[in-house]
Amino acid sequence: MLEFGSNPNNFTFSSILSACASINAIREGEQVHSLLVKYGLHWDIYIDTALIILYAKSMRLVDSHQIFEKMPSKNLAAQNSMIYAYTNCGRMEDADALFREVPEKDFVTYTSMIMGYGGCGDIESACILFDEMPERNVGAWNTMILVYSRNGYGNEALSIFSEMLTSGIDANELTLASMLSVCGKYGFSSMGRGLHSYIMKLGMKIDEYLGSGLIDMYAKCGFIEMAEQVFLQMSDKKLASWNAMIFGFGAHGHGEAALAKFSEMEIEGIIPNDLTLLGVLSSCSHSGLVHEGCLNFSTMVQKHKLVPKLEHYSCLVDLLGRAGHLNEALDTIKNMSMEPDVFVWGSLLSACRMHSNVELGEYALERILELDAKHSGGYVLLSNIYSSMGQWDCASQIKVAMREKGVEKSFPGCSWIEVKKVVHRFHASDRSHPQTHEVYEILNFLSRELKNNWSIC
Predict the structure, then answer these.
(1) Angle, to 10 degrees, between the axis of helix 26-39 and the axis of helix 45-57?
(2) For the chain: N or C, fewer Cβ within 10 A?
(3) How far apart (Å, rounded) are the C-alpha atoms in residues 422 and 190?
(4) What domains sit in the chain, N to C, each tagged with a CATH number?
(5) Residue-wise pLDDT tens digits, 284-296
(6) DSSP-based three-state secondary structure for 89
(7) What stretches of residues are PPR repeats (predicted)?
(8) What are the two backbone dihedrals, phi and then psi, of residue 425, each rounded to the nearest 5 degrees?
């Protein structure tokens, strides 16, 4: 447009700024902001609103607030934008104060606050606002499903989905994609299959979002064959679908199948992204394909021109560590193009536990504690290394050090199992389940049988 000599106007700038915000193109948005100043155009409420959101997405709350305060008049869209800015930066008190000042709230006002409370883990406040909404469209219900799912409330997500349908609100594509994610995350296989039937009954096209959601759900629920069947039946396979299938194969230990799918994707002309390569590396790691994993890490930069992130390095360290190449894993960390985080060092420490390498394990824990002095997982892993080597005094010293430094164990792991369409949830050392007595009787029986069979061998 500029090359052809056409001058941009306010509508041009507001549209471009909104587009930059929507794809997180913050640097480009700043350049557009500079052009706006250069042209000396009169700013209007649409430009201001777009700028508030743009800077909020880069966590520059001060800039967003300054723009908002300088606005001569503030309509609902501007107020909603500032509420979003507060919630995105975790400033819920400020968001609530502005929320109370808005005379006529709309769907966006409420959902911004609900998502904000959900992001802070304040489910109670999110539920209160949801109940206060004068009208709840499908977007409002979708918001609550996301809030429950992201905070570990899988059963509540199922309940509110059922309540939505009962209230006469039809699910849309986003609802179904969100629910498929819930089913995959928490292992609700029966519900997942039911959603698949519901989608087919409605005659909905299995597009990129629903297709990748179905693939991910079936793979996480243990039905990799069904996941592949959905993939093969898709007429238009986008990158997200290929990624879901690669991750699915990898999670099931089918590393070679994941690599074959990656090669097929390249032949089809689909350009991989950093998530694709993460799936490939993870698949190699879980299948012990060290050479293939290292090769793909190299081609990630040289062939695909992708810059490795911390997650890729963590995966590569895990790949090498699982295979027992601990020195190579350490060299990888030392040669990283960025500072390693606790997850990268944690991958090395996990490998040290797997291969009972005390010295390197101690070194890895030191690096972890430099980054996070109260990282309980690191202490526990090193304690397990000492225990596996029979160094009980060292293991006890770890526990003493944790107490002295006020380090508490992370929340216990949680697992789900579905039996006869009923989902049962268990925590480590959990005794709250109504069938706890029977469960532990079976566990003790299996433990005795294993010991007897081991002694016979």
Answers:
(1) 150
(2) C
(3) 9
(4) 308-427 (1.25.40.10)
(5) 999 999 999 999 9
(6) coil
(7) 75-105, 106-136, 137-171, 238-272
(8) -115, 135
